[in-house]
Amino acid sequence: MLAGALVLASHADVRAQEQVAAGGVRVVFWPGQRGRAEEVLAIARQPMRLAGIGRRGAPAGTTILLAPDPAAFRRLTDDAAPEWAGGIAIPERREIVLPGWASAREPGGSVQLIRHEVAHLALNAYLGRPVPRWFDEGYAEIASGGLDAESAWKLRVAIAAGKAPPLDSLELGWPEGADRARLAYLLSATAVQYLQQRNGEHGFEVLLASWRERGTLEVALRATFGTTTGHVETEWRDWVRLHYGWMSALTSAAPIGLIITALVLLIWIPRRRKSRRILAEMAAETRMLPPHRPELVGVEYPLSEAPPPDE
User: Fold this and answer.
1) Of 115, 190, 228, 304, which sits most exposed with the smallest number of CB within 10 A?
2) How many angstroms separate the Cα of 139 from the Cα of each of 36, 193, 195?
3) pTM for this structure?
4) Which helix (H) or strand (E) covers residue 263, if one does?
5) What string of DSSP letters covers 133-190?
6) Per DSSP, what are the bridge partners of residue 50?
7) How many CB atoms sit inside 10 A of residue 306's CB?
8) What is the mean pLDDT of each run of 10 residues along the chain (311 residues)?
9) Domains of the chain, first to last
10) Which residues contact 135 (CB under 8 A, 6 or more apart)?
């Protein structure tokens, strides 16, 4: 997750802690975290494919802080991280704050989380310019492997229901609540994915190079492709409807369970109603039978045929 103008309250703490460093990247950790720190350092330095800018790891000068517990995590992030955030990146300071304890904040696993935050730093270091929030988060999601195609049907449903917010609305603040945040990440990632596919890998590389040179994504889009962010957003929504359309929703694992359940109910409910109707008819017929007669006790049914008369 990207933090905006986040001021760390950590520097007094950091001076008293240990650190491991290599290749211009350092990891600051608390006692008992050396193994975790070395693992984080190795992952952060490992080059990964970053669309448009090549294979890169954490840029030189990066500091990663491993919070020993939730209280320290809140302190190191100035209590700016929502409950669902796995980590925080501060590109202007080339800093990352990660949980150093076993935490539910890492739903995607340590590698994915670290790469997500490193991608923020690498993209911002390459562009050297402010990056729109939706693009920054979407780019980091794709780079880290966080885009879950199995969940993309939710975005198609959200767009159809008019619940997908405009991309530029995310500049005002990331949504609160894990469910809304997941939708925002999905929205951002598929928007960046569309830009990558719109003009191919080379076109995306040219776009980022133009952005780096000209200063803003809007100017770069006009200069490179003769379009605007507003037009691209309209194209993207149409692309989502096609690429993540109803067939995608129907073949996704999550809706399949709902569909199967619905089919079972469609079969079971009429059968249950039919059974109830038959039982009701039987009960009605029983009430129509003549009352019990004592002289008929022991008579077997059906009555056997009368014996033939003696010849």
Assistant:
1) 304
2) 26, 8, 10
3) 0.71
4) helix 253-288
5) HHHHHHHHHHHHT---GGGTHHHHHHHHTT-SPPGGGGGG-PPSSHHHHHHHHHHHHH
6) 54
7) 6
8) 50 66 94 90 95 94 92 83 79 91 59 94 94 92 81 65 59 60 82 90 95 93 90 84 57 42 51 67 59 53 54 49
9) 1-128 (3.40.30.160), 148-272 (no CATH)
10) 188, 191, 192, 217
Single-letter residue type at 192: V
Residue with tokens 């369970």: 257
Residues 62, 87: contact at Cβ < 8 Å? no
Give the type of residue at 193.
Q
Let me know: does 199 contact 205? Beta carbons within 8 Å: no
Q: Give dist(CA 147, CA 174) in Å, integer.
A: 18
Q: Which two tokens stand for residue 161?
A: 């229901």
Peptide bond into 302 cis (omega under 30): yes
Determine the Cα–Cα distance for residues 90 and 5; give it in Å rounded to an integer: 8
